[in-house]
From TrEMBL:
Record keywords: Aminotransferase, Pyridoxal phosphate, Transferase
Cross-referenced Pfam families: Aminotran_3
PANTHER family: AMINOTRANSFERASE, AMINOTRANSFERASE CLASS-III
Domain of life: Bacteria
NCBIfam families: PRK07483.1
Family indicated by similarity: Belongs to the class-III pyridoxal-phosphate-dependent aminotransferase family.
One of the record's GO molecular function terms: transaminase activity
Cofactors (names): pyridoxal 5'-phosphate
Identification of the protein by name: Aspartate aminotransferase family protein
Amino acid sequence: MTRILHRTIGADLPRAVAGQGVYITDAGGRSFIDGSGGAAVSCLGHGHAEVLEAMRAQMDAIAYAHTSFFTTPALESLADRLVALTPPGLDYVYPVSGGSEAVEAALKMARQYFVEIGQPQRRHIIARRQSYHGNTIGALATGGNALRRAQFQPILPETHHVSPCYAYRDQQVGETPEAYAARLADELDAKIRDLGEDRVMAFVAEPVVGATLGAVGPVADYFRRIRAVCDRYGVLLILDEVMCGMGRTGSLFAFEQEGIVPDLVTIAKGLGGGYQPIGAVMLSDCIYRAFAEGSGLFQHGHTYIGHPVAAAAADKVVEIISRPGMMDHVRAMGDRLQAGLDAALGQSPHVGDIRGRGLFRGIELVADKDSKTPFDPALKIHARVKAEAMARGLLCYPAGGTIDGRRGDHVLLAPPYIVAPGEIDMIVERLRDAI
Ligand code: PMP
């Protein structure tokens, strides 16, 4: 009997004992192709020799130094590297140990920023329905997943939600992408005015929605319009790239494809590539200066932030991701994955939509393709696809059931960037058979 409290109590899971490249092996000798990098984490696959070497060297030198006493060359190198690779406007890095911590820190940074500049009444956070921003209480309240929030009510009262940008379901017949984007921006504008023009501190969104919708990107112009609304009212734009960032969509940040720069961006998952738990918030010079010229203190912190081994791992991961040709490969393999899925599943009466960017692809499963009618949640289609895929030696990351009152089943694919063309084809074949 296991002494582990699993999320699904009593779950009987295989034991992972080895990982190499895009494969994981269990204690029974079964091999799985890692079609989702866990939850879009293992961007360089398993057992990457250069990352292991960087970690080993750091452990030999010094494994831990508290950030209230020391910085480390690894952490400084990581911060410099991230800033150098990021579009101008995000010039500072706050290290944390994971995605929820990054979102939590970004929210507190936004809140304290307004305190520092004499606008403490700005407390409201607006995010989008059917979103996921983490499981700590602030991040959970920000996320628009009603089911996950339900048991923890009353949750932070200053969190509010508007519609996601979800063209497959919500763009009306005959409505252009521009008109759809304008309608969503108007909704945000109205929400801000409703809460009070000087009462809202931040709008939070994932550029490409991962866990809750399955790789749903924005329509053209959506984020430019959202940025304009935020600017109109002095609201900070926080983009959560915990899942879609670090090269996953074919550029280091997904927001680079939208022609905007946020005030804060959260990253994690692919930052450590699964080798170490690590995350970060990147922030604007304006926010940094408000702290530096104000109280001189960010009222936050955790024991393991800036962990030297995590920083060394992430520094190497980011260095590898940023090598010439890497993003070209992600885009090429992503195109191959999309084409393969279109060919294998495009005609299926139960595949409503196949979408995504780079090596971040999603499939929406429906009971009826023409009417887009979702499956009955009681059928647990997403969970069955996961089990069928595992039985065929494929790891994918399905989600669904009922999220925020809406039904839907999705499968997310996010293979490591080192995936080879033949392995993309293997993922497609196994997923087709599983579905
Ligand atoms: N934000 C997003 C967009 C995520 O996808 C996740 C994790 N699925 C988180 C935040 C939370 O990250 P973590 O699980 O590392 O706390």
